């Protein structure tokens, strides 16, 4: 008999959803930073923005790095490491407020803040089993 911990299904689901969401966002922001000029044309064409003067490849690179940290945090929590929760929360809070700081408060996303609060709450629910 081994002394291996069983991962609660809810923690597993949160981690898998974070792997998918943060992994996808990492690659999306990577390609947006690399192909910035084409991305700017798409942003202007498919959004209400008339100009993309406020953003730069650095903006998307920062978001890419933050989603990488979010992914690292989820991987650490998957392995029952408590520091993963801290890494995840810091990354998500910065992801939440970076657009507002960089672009302006009009860029704040209520939807993103709701999902961030749900995921952080879900991870905090499992705080005791993380070592």
Blueprint (SSEs and pairs):
Elements (H helix, E strand, L loop, with lengths): L8 H26 L1 H11 L10 H22 L4 H20 L7 H16 L6
In short:
With about 130 residues, the chain is mainly α. The protein is built from five helices and no strands.
Describe the structure.
Helix 1 runs antiparallel to helix 3 (57-78). The two termini are 21 Å apart. The protein is mostly helical and 131 residues long. It is built from 5 helices and no strands. It has helices spanning 9-34, 36-46, 57-78, 83-102, 110-125. The model has no long low-confidence stretch (mean pLDDT 94). The chain is elongated and about 55 Å long. The longest helix is centred in the first third of the chain and has 26 residues, at 9-34. The protein has one domain. Helices cover 73% and strands 0% of the residues.
Biggest sheet, open or closed, and with what strands and sense?
A: none
Share in β-strands: under 5%
* Extended strand count: 0
Percent helix range: over 70%
Mean pLDDT: 94
How many domains would you count in the coordinates? 1
The termini sit apart by: 21 Å
Query: Which class of secondary structure composition applies to the elements?
Result: mainly alpha
Radius of gyration: 17 Å
Q: What spatial form do the alpha-carbon principal axes imply?
A: elongated
The poorly predicted ranges are none
Tally of helical segments: 5
Order of helices and strands: HHHHH
